[in-house]
Amino acid sequence: MDLSFLSSILFATVVAGTPLIIVALGELVTEKSGVLNLGAEGIVSVGAVAAFAVAHHSGSPMLGILAGMGAGMVMSLLFGISALTLMANQVASGLALSIFGVGLSAFIGKPYESIALASVQPIRVPLLHRLPLLGPSLFEQQGLVYFSWALIAAVSWFLYRSRAGLVLRAVGESPVAAHAIGYGVVRIRYQAVLFGGAMAGIGGAFLSVFYTPMWVEGMVAGRGWIALSLVVFATWRPLRVMIGAYLFGGCMITQMFVQGSGARVNIPAQFLSSIPYVATVLVLVLISRNRSTIRINSPASLGQPFLPDA
Amino acid sequence: MPTPTSDTPRLAIRGIRKVYPSVVANDGIDLTVMPGQIHAVLGENGAGKSTLMKVIYGVIRPDEGELLWEGRPVIISNPAQARSLGIGMVFQHFSLFETLTVVQNVALSIPGKLDLDPLAKRIEEVSERYGLPVDPRRMVHALSVGERQRVEIIRCLLQNPRLLILDEPTSVLTPQAVRKLFETLRQLAAEGVSILYISHKLDEIQELCHKATVLRGGKVTGTCTPAEETPQTMARMMIGVDLPACSHGEPEDGGEVRLLIQGLSHATDDPFGTDLKDIHLEVKAGEIVGIAGVSGNGQQELLRAISGEEPHADKRAVRVCGVEAGHMNAARRRGLGMCFVPEERLGRGAVPRLSLTENILLTAYRKGMLFAGLIRFGVAKRFAEECIKRFDVKCGGAHSEAKSLSGGNLQKFIVGREIMQEPKLLVLAQPTWGVDVGASSFIRQSVLDLRNSGTAVLVISEELEELFEICDRIVVIAKGTLSPSKVTSETNVEEIGMWMSGLWPGAKTQGEATHVA
C-alpha cells in the first residue's frame, strides 16, 4: 500500500468527519444546558439547502455558510419556542423538527436538483502542507475543516475554563439550583439551543457547498442522527466527539474503498456498510464505560423542562 | 437616606400575601428582624415558612405586602438583587451542583471574572475564621451532607451578608455538627449579622434564637422569646393543640428472630453510593430496632438489600422469618410476611397516577384481592376505604390519584396499607420525613401498636428524636458499616451522635471519621 493511497484515505476521513464534529459540538453545548434537541437531522438538512441556494445565487461559498448558519438558527428557534417557552416535550419537539426539516429541505431544494456548484479550492497551510502523508490530508483542506478544529478547542475552553461555560454546565446539572442563585435558566438554554442550531446549519453548509457541491434530496443521509449519538457515546466530551467522528469517517471511507476497489472479498456489502456504525459505538462505549465519568459529564437535567415557580 | 442605626430593623416585612391556585401560602405576614438578632421562624410543614423565605430572597414575588430593608422600602425581584442588598440564603434542599468542585460552586454565585485560585484562598480563609473546614478543590458529590452545608454557608459568607437565611439547616446534621453550626451562627450574630432561622425543632430554637415568629396555615399565630417559653407552649402555638405523647409498652423478651442479616457485604455500582461492609443485624418479634445515621452512609443500599430490590448472591446473608432470602426478589420476600415502606412516597411507595385502590393492590393483593387470576376490585376498594378511615387519610376518596394527596397524608396511607397487611416484619424508611407533627405522632403510635401485637419492626431514620421515642434498640450506620446495638434506655443522643461519625468502640473506620460530621 503506497503512501499516496494512505494519504487519500486520511484526507477523505478528515473530510467525512468534519460535518459530524461541527454538528455534534453544537449539540453537545445544547445538551450541556440540559436541552435534548433531536432535531439535528432536520436542521442540518435545512442548513444544507439554504447554504446551497444562497451559494448558487450569489456565487459566494462564504455567503452560503452564513445562510446555512442563519437557517439553522431559525430552525432551532422554532424548537426553542416549542420546548423552552411552551414547555412541550423535548423529545417530541425534536423529532417533529427533524421530520419537518427533512421535508422542508426537499421542498425548497426542488428547483436546485441537478445543479452543481464550482468546487471550492482548499486552503493550503504554508510549509505544513509539504509534510509527507499528513501534509495533503491535514493541511490542504477546506476552511471549515480548520474551523472544526478551532471549534473543538473553543468549546473545550468555553466549557471548562470560562465563567459562561461554568454557568451553562450548572444549568444543565440542576436548573432549579441555578435559578435559585439567580441565573436565567430559560435564557441560557435558548442561547445554547441557538448555538447548536447555528453549528448544525454550518454542518449542513459543509455538506452541500464543499463536500459534494450539489443538492440532492436526502443527501444529509442520517448524519444528524449520527452526530446526536456521537455526543452521547462520547459522554459529552469534546475531544471524544472528535475521536468518534474521525473513527466513523475513517471506517466509512475504508469500507467504501474496499467495496469500490473490486477486491474479491466475500463479505456482503451490507455488512461492510454497517461497520462504521458498529465500530464507532463499540469504541466509544469501551472508552467511556466508567460510570462515574458518565455521571460527572452527563447533564443531569437533560430533557427535563424547567418551570420557574413564580 | 436614613442611616441605619441599631434600632432600625435590618428587615421589616408588612402584610405579605402569596396565593397559589390551591392554597393561600402566606396571608398577611408581619416580621421584624433587628441587626445581630437570631430570629426563628417556626411552623409545621405547609405553614408557609419556605414561601416567606423565598419572597424575602426574591425567588418568588408576593401578591401583596411590602419589605423594608434597613428602613427603606424595597422590591426584591430576583436572588441576585437580594444578594446585592446583603441577603444570603442557605437552602433546605441544597442548591449545589454535584458535578462541580466546591470553588466552582462558590464562583457561580459571585459576580465577576472566573479566577479560581484566589477564590479558593478566600474560601480557605473564611472556613478557617468561622470553623467550617472544607477543601475547596473537591467535587461536591464526594462531600458529606454536613460539608455540603458548610459550602452553602461559606458561599453566603463570602458576600458579606447582613442577613442570613437558613432553611431547616439541622435536618441533615449529627448533633455534634449542629453544635458547631450554632457556634458559627452565634459568632456571626455577634458580628452584627441578622439571622433568620427556619425550623420546626423546638429545642434548637430555644437554645439558639433570641426571638421567634410562629406561623400556622400561612398566618402569624404569635411571636415570643423562646428562652421564656417551654417546648410545650411553643408547640401549642405551632399546631394549635397539645401534642399527644406516644405510649410505649415494655419490650417482650425472647421473641423469635424475624430478620437476620449475617455478614452482608455489597459493593455498589453507583458512583455516588456507599459500599456495605460486613453487616450483622437481628430484629426479633415484638421489638423496634432503629438504624440511625447521617444520610448517604449506606442506608439506601442496606434498604435495597433488605427489601429485595437488590437481591444478593449469597442466600444466607438475609433471612426473613427464618427462611434464607438473600437471593429472593421483593415480591417473594413480601410473601414471607415482610412489608416495606420506602423513603420516596411517589414512584416507589405509590404510583402517582394510579388511584388509591390500585395502589392498595400493588402490595396488599395477597389479602384476598385476586381470584382465578382476576382482580376483585370490590375487596381492594373496601381495603382502601378502611385504610383511609383508620389512618385518617385526608383525600377525595379511594378513587383519588395518589399524587393528589399531600406528602403527610400519602405517607399515612402507605404506612396504613403495610400495617393492615399484618406483617410479621415491617421495614420503614424515614417514616415521618416531611410529615407534620400531628401526623408524625400518629404514625409513630401506629408503629408502636403494631410492635405490641408482636410484629418485628426495623426503622431507618435521620431523626434521632424519633428513634429515641419509639425504638427498643438503636444501631448506627456510618460509611456502610453497622455499629453494635444499644438498648435505647441505656444510651443517649450524645453517644449515638458520636457513633454517627463512625466512632464507636471497635469501629474500623476511625481514621477517616472526621469528614462524616
Describe this structure in words.
The complex is a heterodimer of chains A (310) and B (517). In chain A, α6 packs across α7. Chain A has one domain: ABC transporter involved in vitamin B12 uptake, BtuC, CATH 1.10.3470. Chain A is mainly alpha-helical. The longest helix of chain A has 30 residues. The termini of chain A are far apart. Chain B has 517 residues and is an alpha/beta fold. Chain B has 3 domains: 229 residues, Rossmann fold (3-Layer(aba) Sandwich); 189 residues, 3-Layer(aba) Sandwich (Rossmann fold), CATH 3.40.50.300; 61 residues, no CATH class. Chain B is built from 16 helices and 23 strands. In chain B, strands 13, 16, 19, 20, 21, 22 and 23 form a 7-stranded mixed sheet that branches. In chain B, strands 6-7-8-3-9-10 form a 6-stranded mixed sheet, sandwiched between helices. In chain B, β7, α6 and β8 form a beta-alpha-beta unit. The longest helix of chain B has 16 residues. Chains A and B meet through α7, α8 and α13 of A and α2 and α3 of B.
Largest sheet of chain A: 2 strands, antiparallel
Biggest β-sheet strands, sense, barrel of chain B: 7 strands, mixed
Number of helices of chain B: 16
Mean pLDDT across all residues of chain B, rounded? 86
CATH architecture of the largest domain in chain B: 3-Layer(aba) Sandwich
Number of strands of chain A: 2
| Integer average pLDDT of chain A | 90
Task: Return the CATH topology of chain A.
Answer: ABC transporter involved in vitamin B12 uptake, BtuC
State the distance separating the first and last CA atoms of chain A: 67 Å
Q: Based on CA inertia axes, which overall geometry of chain A fits?
A: globular
Q: What general form of chain B does the structure show?
A: globular
CATH topology of the largest domain in chain B: Rossmann fold
